[in-house]
């Protein structure tokens, strides 16, 4: 679980309405103005070919979210198992331990690794705690690669610096330390449950955007296919299609605004791994480390809106050319 506080990037869909000149303000003049643009002239060469938008950004984002959700649930299960194993240990007698989690701060590295000898690591109870953590949380395939921490460092980061401090100071597992380890491990598991729920909601949102954008793209293609099938003077049909494409572009603008509001109000922030740990937004946590765009939904909307603008330009050229 990770992340520095970050603000959602603002991504705006550019306006694409034809710009009227001072000399001419009628619809045919607007369309004619568009038809003179070099890019539109090039587009005429491929008239009749309807481009298909694959929605790859959203689909890749869903795959990333599903993979992250699986890792989060694996971590939850690992912390639950660690808590169960620690709760089953016999703590050291109270007379042989110092008070837990109340002493001065100590370096977490003073807790010896489970495979090392000497110092606190010689106590069988402490070795069992460290072995349990190694065999549960630290054994996850992604954990060492993502966090790159030793067992003591991970204990301190996940369950609190005073956890490792108390274990190091006492040199064994006191009843107080045992209770705290179990309580905080279950709290870490609960945090993973909340994160998994948030990722589930994001997957649902991505599926909804995928469905909505697929519908927009399908309507776009049908409009163009209809226009390409019109015989004779298709000016009226072209003007109608041009307007309908504009409505689709407006739907893209609305979808982008809705997504931007979700980015501005994320469900949670997540802790960042590493020495420069901080907080970052939920969406930055999900998409910042990926190879795709940081804002996949907005990128997908922009791609479709761009295709719609290209299509409108082609239709405008058809009207201006009197086809």
What count of structural domains?
A: 2
Indicate the mean pLDDT.
78
Structural class: mainly alpha
The biggest beta sheet is recorded as: 2 strands, antiparallel
- Radius of gyration (CA) equals 30 Å
SSE pattern, N- to C-terminal: HHHHHHHHHEEHH
What is the strand content? Answer: under 5%
Q: What is the number of E strands?
A: 2
Total helices: the number is 11
Low-confidence stretches: 1-29, 31-49, 97-121
Report the end-to-end length measured between terminal Cα atoms: 59 Å
Please bin the fraction of helical residues: 55-70%
Shape: rod-shaped
Strand order within the widest beta sheet: 1-2
How would you explain this protein's 3D organization?
With 323 residues, the chain is an all-alpha fold. It folds into 2 domains: 27-71 and 191-320, no CATH class; 92-173, no CATH class. The chain is 62% helix and 2% strand. It is built from 11 helices and 2 strands; from the N terminus they run H-H-H-H-H-H-H-H-H-E-E-H-H. The chain has helices at residues 27-35, 38-44, 56-87, 124-135, 143-147, 151-159, 161-170, 175-228, 235-264, 282-287, 296-320, and strands at residues 269-271, 279-281. The protein has a two-stranded antiparallel sheet. Helix 3 (56-87) packs antiparallel against helix 4. The chain is rod-shaped and about 95 Å long. The model is unreliable at 1-29, 31-49 and 97-121 (pLDDT under 50). This is DUF7260 domain-containing protein. InterPro entries: DUF7260 (IPR055684). Residues 57-312 form the DUF7260 domain. The chain crosses the membrane at residues 40-58.
């Amino acid at each position: 679980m990770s992340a520095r506080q970050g603000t959602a990037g603002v991504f705006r869909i550019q306006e694409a309405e034809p710009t009227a000149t001072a000399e001419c303000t009628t619809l045919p003049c607007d369309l004619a103005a568009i038809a003179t643009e070099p890019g539109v002239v090039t587009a005429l060469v491929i008239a009749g070919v309807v481009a298909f938008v694959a929605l790859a950004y959203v689909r890749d984002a869903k795959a990333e979210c599903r993979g992250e959700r699986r890792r989060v649930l694996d971590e939850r299960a690992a912390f639950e198992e660690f808590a169960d194993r620690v709760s089953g240990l016999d703590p050291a007698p109270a007379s042989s331990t110092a008070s837990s989690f109340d002493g001065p701060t100590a370096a977490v590295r003073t807790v010896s690794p489970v495979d090392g000898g000497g110092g606190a690591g010689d106590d069988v109870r402490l070795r069992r705690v460290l072995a349990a953590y190694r065999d549960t949380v630290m054994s996850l395939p992604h954990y060492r690669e993502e966090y790159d921490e030793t067992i003591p460092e991970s204990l301190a980061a996940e369950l609190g610096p005073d956890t490792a401090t108390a274990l190091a100071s006492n040199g064994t597992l006191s009843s107080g330390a045992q209770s705290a380890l179990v309580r905080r491990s279950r709290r870490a598991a609960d945090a993973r449950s909340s994160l998994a729920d948030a990722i589930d909601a994001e997957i649902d949102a991505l599926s909804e955007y995928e469905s909505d954008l697929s519908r927009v793209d399908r309507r776009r293609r049908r409009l163009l296919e209809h226009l390409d099938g019109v015989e004779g003077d298709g000016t009226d049909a072209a003007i109608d299609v041009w307007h309908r494409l504009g409505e689709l572009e407006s739907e893209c603008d609305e979808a982008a605004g809705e997504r931007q509001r979700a980015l501005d109000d994320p469900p949670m922030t997540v802790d960042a791994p590493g020495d420069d740990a901080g907080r970052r937004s939920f969406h930055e946590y999900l998409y910042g480390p990926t190879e795709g765009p940081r804002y996949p939904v907005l990128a997908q909307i922009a791609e479709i809106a761009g295709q719609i603008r290209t299509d409108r330009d082609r239709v405008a050229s058809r009207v201006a050319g009197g086809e």
